[in-house]
Design goal:
Length: 360
């Protein structure tokens, strides 16, 4: 049974958060798993630097907050190496079906081994709190890089796009689709290479009751039209998202914008982005065509697969060679001052862990 849009009466799939015709956002707040309230009654206390989680992970710092929950950098005392630890929100973890789907997806995602993809490790539970461990990639996320750099050099944009596309090609070969590709999910590591993070998460969360406020699947600005409309998706949704990321790197702005999520979705479904050449004169016709094809609203008019897009990028890459070097660390005057306490914290935590292992 579908969901009728209250604004235009268009019938949508039951698990979508937005109308596929007019972009109206649906209110699904009443569809909450039975265990949601019970889970929220016993929330996991905030993890602080130096504290130990699950008797194994010593928290070094909080890295950020995403759609699934908070992400921490931690020292795995069992393996004596750093990992990224994602503590899943109670409203998501409370749904057993979602956790089981994610567990199954993670088994597949773990098979992806590629230099441009961050490794996924395990889904575990401690005292009712579910969490994911994954490879910790030192560096800066692409969103931050774009924000402080503005428009990236065309050669740099193509280089990053090529690396992300190469990672996606390996994932798609294994029939794994990311579904939430965006700059904040792409890390620029200490060698200046792009690494895609969070594989296997968005697909596992897709389902009835998970599109309400705070747990929407995907990020509106990077959603493909079929994803925004709640339709079936395949690997071509990742091609669309990569097209949005490339557009943003080249122009410093998003191709589809709005004052709120509903307006953004409506723009994705109905509007055409401003031509690249109108925003940046040095963009060539060939580069414009690559972005235009990746952002075709109909999946059938996009690249058939990521390898085709990758081939077009490689064909124009030499024309846009740049001497610009992707910085290995953020170029900020106070960077060292800000990082000293964190660096010292790592050594202190490591020393405590060694003492505990020896004494234990």
């Amino acid at each position: 049974m579908g969901v009728d849009c209250p604004k235009c009466n268009f019938e949508n799939p039951e698990d979508t958060a937005y109308c596929g015709k007019c972009g109206t956002k649906f209110d699904l707040s009443g569809d909450i798993p039975p265990s949601y309230t019970e889970t929220l009654e016993t929330p996991k206390e905030k993890l602080t630097t130096g504290s130990t989680f699950a008797e194994r992970f010593q928290i070094i710092e909080e890295l950020g907050i995403g759609g699934m929950g908070k992400v921490y950098r931690a020292l795995d005392k069992k393996l004596m190496e750093e990992v990224a630890l994602k503590l899943i929100k109670p409203e998501i973890a409370s749904d057993k079906k979602v956790i089981e789907r994610f567990r199954n997806e993670l088994k597949i995602a773990r098979k992806i081994v590629h230099k441009n993809i961050g490794r996924m490790y395990e889904l575990m539970e401690d005292e009712g709190a579910h969490y994911i461990t994954m490879e910790y990639v030192p560096g800066e996320d692409l969103k931050s890089f774009i924000k402080r750099s503005g428009q990236l050099a065309i050669g740099t944009s193509l280089r990053i796009t090529k690396q992300v596309a190469e990672g996606l090609a390996e994932a798609h070969r294994l029939r794994v689709v990311h579904r939430d590709l965006k700059p904040s999910n792409v890390m620029i590591d200490k060698e200046g290479s792009a690494r895609i993070m969070d594989f296997g998460i968005a697909r596992s969360l897709r389902g009835k009751g998970l599109t309400r406020e705070g747990t929407a699947i995907g990020t509106p600005a990077y959603m493909s039209p079929e994803q925004a409309g709640g339709e079936d998706m395949d690997h071509r949704t990742d091609i669309w998202s990569l097209g949005v990321v490339l557009y943003e790197m080249l122009t410093g702005q998003l191709p589809f914008k709005g004052k709120n999520e509903q307006a953004v979705i409506h723009s994705i479904l109905k509007d055409e982005p401003e031509p690249l050449i109108g925003l940046r004169s040095e963009v060539t016709v060939e580069l414009g065509k690559i972005v235009e094809k990746a952002l075709a609203k109909s999946p059938d008019k996009r690249y058939t697969n990521i390898d085709e897009m990758l081939a077009d990028i490689r064909s124009i890459e030499k024309e846009h060679e740049t001497k610009e070097v992707i910085p290995k660390v953020p170029v900020l005057k106070d960077l060292w001052r800000r990082r000293v306490p964190q660096i010292l914290g790592v050594y202190i935590i490591a020393a405590k862990a060694i003492v505990e292992l020896v004494s234990g």
